[in-house]
Each structure stands twice: as structure tokens, then as C-alpha cells.
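[Meeting: bench + compute handoff]

Bench side (C.D.) handed over the final construct sequence. Compute side (W.E.) agreed to return the predicted structure before the next meeting so the bench team could plan truncations. Sequence as handed over:
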Amino acid sequence: MADKKIKILYIIDYFHRTGGTEKHLAELICHLPQERFENTVVVFDLGENALIDAIRATGASVIHMPVGRVYTPNAFLRMVELRQIIREKGIDIVQTFAQKADSYGAIAAKLSGVKRIVSSKRDTGEFRDSRYLFLNRLLGPLFDRVTVVSDAVANAAIAKEGFKREKIIKIYNGVDTVKFAPPTIEEAVRERHHWGFTAADFVVGIVAGFRPEKNYDIFFSAVKRVLSEICSLKILAVGGGPLLNYYRNYCANEGFSDRIVFAGDVANVAGCLKTMDMACLISRSEGFSNAVVEKMAVGLPLVVTGVGGNKEAVVDGDNGIIIPPGDSDAVYESIVTLYADPAMRRHMGRRSREIVEEKFSVKQMIRAYEQLYGELLSTRQKP
């Protein structure tokens, strides 16, 4: 007789863009063995995109459940709906992603008598509503485990939300090392042609949503200086967000929009990365960036700020350069340094790929989750 499938309900606040949390959940569901796991996703704010399509293609059920504030009568009705889903589907494990998911998910799961509850933490809490941090402190004892993506996130979960260290397990974001791989010459030429670059261009890339915490003002301040010194320099900026049009207009007003391509949100991020000679991520806050390990997998040297999980992926002087957040001069100097030293770029790019294969592959991430789920269900529930 075949073993019974493990039934998991994933609850997530939003799925209307291709951000890090959405990408992490999609990679998890798409790579978990379908013969062992039956997955359901409840999304509070749903927008159609390629990641949702990929999740549905695995056979997972995707349920849109719009919710309001946690402190309204509507919240009770939604918790009743979640409880019904959990019971009807015979869910074994509930795993939550983001603020509202933690609140709704923990209460509904506990009311349903679900076997195990997992909270997934992916940031260090700087931009979270203080009310949710307080609520999470109250609900923390309901969670059996807390997954984190870096040491920085683990420390924040303990300090700001009161989770016990023994409940915390670190599972790094995993990257598909087949899809994200160093390009062949033919691939690089094709992708550069697609975005309007030539073989002679020195392409600096950045993949990040256009939001305040990504520090695009610091990036473009440095770029403005470098463009006047390196004639072959071009920029490929990948990502959408509320500040995208602002920076498009800024670059046009400053007179260098002809040397910058704003790609917006794209489905083929790997193709974009294969056009680049180096890449930057200069956020003022990060949990653990999918974009960083994807760039590493493609074999790129990196310039990153020394925040959050960046320091766990990038080794200064080995596969990239670590700079202080908010330092435009350091961004400028790092780009100039890497441009002037092709041998350094090749070494760093090679090391980036090696480090991903050692620590950050999707296979390693899936293995860690399978072990976590197995251990949770093999542990007897306390009476």
C-alpha cells in the first residue's frame, strides 16, 4: 500500500507580483515531489502571473480569499473559511508567509486541530506594522517551527517577535541551477541582442523592485558618475514597483536614459542575467535575496550592501564586493574597479557559481523542507 501523501496548506498575503516571497513559494511547490506531497495555496491578494501558473501546473489548488484587516468582523468569517478548508482537505501542515497569513493561519489551524503549524520569516521586520509584530508575539506559541532564510532574519524573529531559538530552522532560498546557469556565447549574444546591447557593451545589472528600501537613488547617483567615465557602460534594471516611472523620468531628465534599459517585471529573469557583466544589489535591508543567488548561479561578480543575508552569500573579495548601505561613492568605486579588472570579474564569477552549487541550490532547499516536514509529522503532538 502506497504511503499517504503529506497534505500542506500554504497561506500567503499576496501573489500579485514576482517578488522574493512569491518566487520562494513557487520554487518550493514546483520542486516538492508530487508523489509525496499534496499542496494547497490560499492567497489573500491574488494577481495572475507566471509563478501562479507554474504552481497550478503542478496540480496544486490555488484559492483566492480576499481579507481585510485582522481587527474587523470580516476576519472572523475568513478564519471560519480557512478552518473549513483545513478540515475538508485533511491538511497535515499549515505554513504561513507574511503578516496577515501568520495571524489568520495560526488561529484557523489551531481551531482546526491541524497537526503542525510553521511560520516562514523572510525579512528582518524593519517595514512591518508594529501591530502585527505585537500580534505575532501573542501568537508565537502556536507555531511549532519558524523557518528563516538567514541568520539576520533568525535574530530579528527572536528579538522582535519573541520566538524561541529552538523553534527556528534556517533554510536558505534555493536557486534552480539548470535554469540559472552561466550562459554559452550563443546565449549571451542572443540575450544581448534582445535587450539592445552589443558584445562591446559593459552591462551592469540590477534586479530589484522599485521600492524605497532598494536604494535606487544611491545606485543612479553612482551610475551618473560612471557613465561619464566609461563610454561602453550600459545599465539593465529589472523589476517593477511604485517608483519605476519616477526613476525613468529621473534618468530622462538627467540625460542618460539612452544608456539604461528598464525591463520592468519579466518572466525570463535568467535571460536578463545572461546579458550582464556584473550585478549590483544595494538595498538598505534584506532578509536573503533570491536575486543575489540567481546572479551568483549565472556566474556574475556582485556588488552588494552588507545587510541581512547578503553577507551569508557574498564573500568580500572572493565572489563580490561588500559595501556599506547608502554609500554612493562605494558603488561608483566598485563598478570602476570591476570594469578595470577582467581577471577579477572572471574569478568572482566562477566563485559565485561554485558557492551556489555548494550551499544554495534548489535541491538543497527541497531536501531541507522534506526533512522538516517529515520530522514535524513524526513527532508526537503534545496532549
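W.E. noted at the follow-up: The mean pLDDT is 92. C.D. will use this when planning the next construct.
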